[in-house]
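User: Okay, second chain of the day. Same drill as before: sequence in, structure tokens out.
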Amino acid sequence: QVQVVESGGGLVQSGGSLRLSCAASGRYFSIPVMGWYRQAPGEQRELVADIRSGGSANYADSVKGRFTISRDNAKNILYLQMNSLKPEDTAVYYCRARVSPLLNQPLKDYWGQGTQVTVSS
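Assistant: Same drill. Structure tokens below.
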């Protein structure tokens, strides 16, 4: 089993910054992909950014140039640095770990419980 725990959310004014962290722990072979998703009230969950173990990253257009995703592969910790925050960034942010339980086995998804980010205008 794998546990995924987010931290770092909170309330910030428009234009401010926050840094989210996500720690994955448990028994697994590797975690090829980790990512951040968000869900605003009444909206579907959407991809914010994800990153492969080799370092290649993918961003939603709405956050390009403002958010930076990174990961510490040795510790399996994922980060999201969020700058120039806007009220429309307000959402619950979730961490997703795509885990390989054993060598050559299909990937399994594990999600954290979410952390609230609120940006006031």
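DSSP finds no helices and eleven strands in the chain.

User: Thanks, on to the next one.
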